[in-house]
Amino acid sequence: MDAPSLHIPVLRDEVVDALAPRDGAVLVDGTFGAGGYTAALLASAACTVWAIDRDPAAVARGHALAARHPGRLTVLDGTFGCMESLLAAHGITRVDGIALDIGVSSPQIDDPSRGFSFRFDGPLDMRMGSHGTTAADIVNERDEAEIADIVWRYGEERHSRRVARAIVARRREAPITRTLDLAEIVRSVVPKSKDGIDPATRTFQALRIAVNDELGELERGLAAAERLLAPGGRLAVVTFHSLEDRVVKEFLRSRSAAAPAPSRHLPAPADAPAPTFRLIARSGVTPAPAELAANPRARSARLRSAERTSAPARRLGDAA
Question: Is-above-0.70 flag for pTM?
């Protein structure tokens, strides 16, 4: 086994079981992070892994791991939504398994300079990569209605208008640039919940999703996986909140025999597309009590997995 990872990969063993690695297989870890899944896959069979991450710190960790597995691990700088073109640049057009972990890694959350957490004072950044719009750009430049929409849509915060109004009022005094400043603004207008979750949680989640276009990235990644996986290849996706899980569940259901028929009283249309995936566990897999005890951050995780059929991938715009 490789050197201990900084990050405890959630549902690691379940992801490896879902992908069922075999000798000679070509696998993709689309969200390398601290390398927990990649290390486990490399240890499980004589396979090769292509790892992808947009975080420069993760890519650097990947190169260190690759040095311990010469010829078996290649690390690519980019996003998993672009994995098809990233792999094609290296002559890879078919793979046998793809793992995606849609959460933020612990090294990112625990680094105050990344601005993901309201537990530390840090710059209001939240970018998983090193380019693009920051959370500070959103709260200081977008209008009140747009901020409210982001907080509602991606954080499911029912006090979103109140949050947006408070942000706009505060930034008239001075730009909001620090995580703790934003957390205090949100706490001043959102009441504490009975479950003990910090009132700032949903607003921080919403800004992080918006900054990194996480749901758009997930949709692009799922479509790319459908095109890349060889018949019999496996897809394993770990999500951490209902918005992400809903995207994965609906995608796999629409591509599998579980897709709803137009009417239960009528036969399926003759031109209905053939399923491109077979669901492995219909309701998904959640962490066992022992993992939850060791890693409380895993409490909201859910693994969904499916096996690729031989049917052609759907074209853009095809009906589900």
Answer: yes
Name 270's Cβ contacts closer than 8 Å, sequence gap at least 6: none
Q: How far is residue 58's CA from residue 64's CA, in Å, rounded to a whole number?
A: 10
Cα(252)–Cα(279) distance, integer angstroms: 7
Helix spans in 74-174 (H): 83-88, 106-109, 135-141, 144-155, 160-171
The whole-number mean pLDDT for each consecutive block of 10 residues of the chain, a chain of 320 residues, reads 57 97 98 95 98 94 96 97 98 98 84 92 94 96 98 96 98 97 98 89 97 97 98 97 95 87 63 91 92 89 98 73
Q: Phi and psi at residue 161, in whole multiples of 5°?
A: -65, -40
d(CA 44, CA 66): 16
Angle at 184 between CA 181 and CA 186, to 5 degrees: 110
Rg for the chain, CA atoms, rounded: 21
| Tokens 């053939």 belong to residue | 274
Residue linked to tokens 């260190």: 64
How many Å from the N-terminal Cα to the C-terminal Cα in the chain?
Answer: 42
pLDDT of residue 261: 64
- CA 32, distance to chain mean position in Å, is 11
Q: Where are the beta strands (DSSP E) in the chain?
A: 26-29, 48-53, 73-77, 95-101, 229-239, 277-279, 302-308
Phi, psi for 267 (deg, rounded to 5): -70, 155
Position 202: which residue type?
R
Task: Check: CB of residue 310 under 8 Å from CB of residue 231.
Answer: yes
Which amino acid is residue 109, in one-letter code?
I
User: For residue 262, what pLDDT is reported?
Assistant: 62
Write down the residue that tokens 């692009």 correspond to.
220
